[in-house]
Structure formats: C-alpha cells, structure tokens
Amino acid sequence: MKGYAGKILRVDLSNGRSSAEEIPDGMKRDFLGGRGFAVKLLWDEVKHVDPLSEKNKIIFSTGPLTGQSLPSSGKMVIASKSPLTGGYGDGNIGTMAAVYLRKAGY
C-alpha cells in the first residue's frame, strides 16, 4: 500500500539498541493510519502486560499522509497501554517531529 514510509523502528531504552523492520503488507492494508498501527502493535505485543511494567511499550506512529502538503498532515499518535484503565490510551500531537520521523523512513 502506498503512502507509508515502510519501516518500524524499535528502540530498547534499557540497553540503547535499535532495530528496523519492514511493515507487513497486511498491516498496511488492514490497520489504517498511525492509530491503526498503534492499536495493532499494542494488541499483539502487550495484551497481557501490566501497564506499569517495564515490558509496556510506548508507540510513536505516523500515518500515510504525514508530511504531505495537506492541512493537519504533521500529526503523530503516541500510544501505550493505559495505567488508568488497563486498555488502550493515546494522544495526538501536531509537530515537525512527526514529519522528521516519516522522512527518516519510519
């Protein structure tokens, strides 16, 4: 699917290591946008993790229109498993960081 930068960047804050992986085509097709990606990743990877555990993840995700010459296209979703509800929690920010993340290939 066109519009995505194509990679997921994983950063392990406990040891400072990072790695990149390709976004599966099915994920691009079935989970649209930054929020869709965040929901999919959290569901698959932290469904049974305590929200206050070091195994919980914080996801910074851009969508297919991030960085385009369109109104409100400089947005990014930041999501995690919520300590308040134990479910999905996210916020949206409008920032050049979203554009830079996208232009870096993520």
Mean pLDDT: 90
* Overall CATH class: Alpha Beta
How many domains? The number is 1
Give me the CATH superfamily. Answer: Aldehyde ferredoxin oxidoreductase, N-terminal domain
For the sheet with most strands, the description reads: 3 strands, antiparallel
Helix content: 25-40%
Outline, from the CA principal axes?
globular
What is the number of beta strands?
Answer: 5
Number of H- or I-type helical stretches: 3
What CATH calls the topology is Aldehyde Ferredoxin Oxidoreductase,  A, domain 1
Question: What order do the helices and strands come in, and which of them pair?
Answer:
Layout: E1 7-12, E2 17-22, H1 25-30, H2 33-46, E3 58-61, E4 75-81, E5 88-94, H3 96-103
Antiparallel strand pairs: 1-2, 3-4, 4-5
List keywords for this structure.
alpha+beta; single chain; Aldehyde Ferredoxin Oxidoreductase,  A, domain 1; three-stranded antiparallel beta sheet; 106 residues
What would your notes on this structure say?
With 106 residues, this protein is α+β, with helices and mostly antiparallel strands. The chain has one domain (7-103): Aldehyde Ferredoxin Oxidoreductase,  A, domain 1 (4-Layer Sandwich). 26% of the residues lie in helices and 28% in strands. It is built from three helices and five strands; from the N terminus they run E-E-H-H-E-E-E-H. It has helices at residues 25-30, 33-46, 96-103; strands at 7-12, 17-22, 58-61, 75-81, 88-94. It has a three-stranded antiparallel beta sheet. The chain has a two-stranded antiparallel ribbon with strand order 1-2. The longest helix has 14 residues, at 33-46. It is globular, with a radius of gyration of 14 Å. The two termini are 15 Å apart.
